[in-house]
Amino acid sequence: MEPTLPPIPAKRYFTIGEVGELCAVKPHVLRYWEQEFTQLRPMKRQGNRRYYQHHEVLMIRRIRELLYEQGFSINGARQKLQQASQKGRHGADHPDGDAIPLPDESTVRTAGDGGRICADQLEAVMRELREIRFLLSVEG
User: For residue 101, which phi and psi values (nearest 5 degrees)?
Assistant: First the structure.
């Protein structure tokens, strides 16, 4: 029987050791998975130290599930994640049944100074939100 994974704390960044404990995966395995799964791109800071974000911890748990619990090969897990990612990008529906609409450009403003958010920034945020939504739907 697979071990029960601990809840993910409400933190912005996690070290490789913390992620290893949260996902029951050794750090050298995480480094290997970074080479095999392009979705895993932790930030690297001083001395090449890795810092993972919450959505990456969820992705690692999903990869672990595919490999260890469902018996996928690395290639099979990679394909499964790519299919799911493409499905999420091309019209995945919001849980309420409607696709997530992009806000009208005239209503998009940054908090504080009233300046406009760049369309590229908005698209990047929307892409990340879609990925997080997908990961959360797969987790449950």
Answer: -80, 145
Going residue by residue through the chain, which has 140 residues, state the pLDDT in tens, using 9 for 90 and above.
456 899 999 999 999 999 999 999 999 999 999 999 988 999 998 888 999 999 999 999 999 999 999 999 999 999 999 888 777 665 544 444 445 555 554 444 444 545 555 666 777 777 778 777 767 765 54
Sequence-distant contacts of 132-135: CB under 8 A, at least 24 apart: 132/54, 132/55, 132/58, 133/88, 133/92, 133/94, 134/84, 134/85, 134/87, 134/88, 134/92, 135/55, 135/58, 135/59, 135/62
Query: What is this structure's pTM?
Result: 0.62
Strand intervals (E) in 21-140? 43-44, 50-52
Domains, the chain, ordered by start: 14-139 (1.10.1660.10)
